[in-house]
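Task: encode each sequence below as structure tokens.

Item 1
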Amino acid sequence: MTDGETTRLVAWSHELRRTHATLRRALVVARDAVISGGSAPSATRDLLLYCRGFCVALDGHHRGEERHLFPAVARAHPHLRPVLRALEQDHAMIAHLLGGLQDALDRPGTAAELSAHLDGLAAIMENHFRYEERQLLTVLQTLDLPTSTAETLGPL
């Protein structure tokens, strides 16, 4: 394997970390928007933008992983299939929580309700990201993925 090929493969683990860091920052921005101006019914456009943007970004990240990353990992490392199933279960739970946040934004919910939704998402998301990184970062350093980072890890 050439140095260029090795660098490209190792880059996937860096990209996963970067994507997770971006999503963490997006959550902080959404939480800050709730604190600074999210009292319903006069939720600011920024609040709606940040919270909805966060929801779309996180959902897109998980869809990309399930479509491209997880099948490639399962083919190359069949022993990790239970890990991938656990990660997919996390994705389903997070999608449910994102749906609750979307409902609260559509009503609109109170700042306390929005904060509670974001706090719940933050807890699950952080546990999920840490587990995923512990289980997959080393694997990603040897995985050949023919897709782009946007397709695989979401449009961030």
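Item 2
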Amino acid sequence: MAKKSFKRNGQEYQPPYQFWRECDFWADECVSRGMTFMQRHLYRALLQAAFYCSTRPYLPINDDELWKLADAGDRDNWVKNKDAILVKFQETEVKGVKVFSHRRLLRDWIKLIEGSEKQSKRRKGKQSKKAKSTDDEEPLDNVGDSDVEADENEL
């Protein structure tokens, strides 16, 4: 089995879940007091989409992609609301491509990668222990259905 590399912006890694602390989301006054319900929805959708889109853990800069990732319904809704949302992101360049970055997203992405690597090392350790212990033992005979006795009255 080929070893996966986490060094290429994590593109081969797709997280099984996403960290989400609702308190962090609402603690930001810009979100809780400065955004409308629609802007909060679009912002939340972008934060969640950043973990699974093609530029993960970053977001593309292109409005044609962003309105879809933000679940805006249509491009016009995105254009009306994007200024209040994009203040939460920083434009950066990764491998020659301009993308939007978000501090909390990057923190959570690093935690996910570290957790995944830790679990992978644990699994590899268990597999090597299991391989060593089974190499020394004799294989057990297969037990057929006719060899199993059951008292159907006890059921």
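Check on item 2: Residues 22-108 form one domain. Strands lie at 59-60, 90-94, 97-101.
End of task.
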